[in-house]
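Extended Data, record GTPase Era
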Amino acid sequence: MSQTCGFVAIVGRPNVGKSTLMNRILGQKVSITSRRPQTTRHQVMGIKTQDEAQFVYVDTPGMHIMSKDRNKAINRFMNQAAGQALRDVDCVVFIIDRTRWSEEDQAVLKRLEHVTAPVILAVNKVDRLQDKTELLPWLESVGARRDFTAIVPISAKHGTQVDTLEAEVAKHLPESVHYFPEDQITDKSLRFMAAELVREKIMRQLGDELPYQMTVEIEEFREAGRVTHISALILVERQGQKVILIGDRGERIKSIGREARLDIERVLDGKVMLNLWVKVKRGWSDDSRALKSLGYNLD
């Protein structure tokens, strides 16, 4: 039996469950998640090798409509990163949230007009539908919006019908040698993943207070014996945000560090010493040069 291998872009508006789906498919966390929209900022590649087939999933930032509060350089970067993932892919999984169709879903659909690769529609979070009888008529109506290769209702959180979705994707993988070793699950470095896990804990605890004006940069990542020492710099834009992040007597930053360290230890399978620092860097999220220096680069 010949080998197959292909790139699969996972796209959709913010907060529909793209990262949750990829983590479910891979069986472990590669993309960070939170209830806050636009938690994912970079293209993150997740690799699954199963027998003769290798799936190279590309998780993307949520495609969103630029608005007054989402019109910074980092917003433009995220939209460009999501759009770039559509180039030269073998298949696209377009995710929507239950029977909700928004202006941003329509904008994503429009971005897909010129995509020649097969597009599979994944209707996520169906486990949360109050009235299940709404689903079938909705699937029929949404199917009229485009000639989708397949429409699959799923629950990424619980794994419902995710295997069915994978089987549909597998039909579109071209014959090819595998691009990655069988045991590799992502193209991202451990340094990158450590920074993302710190950012995830901040988003989960303080997503409303620090929506987009926060990023994490790893300043030190070194192994000393059986311990990995990591120093992470958290950048915010205002002094007030720094105060919120540190918390009363440093309790908030300690809680974030504790949760992040435990997740990083699971990824590294070893002991971690994690130090967090907070610094105010005004205007970084709307400064293209600053973004590039912080790793927000499409090159």
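Summary. The longest strand covers residues 214-224.
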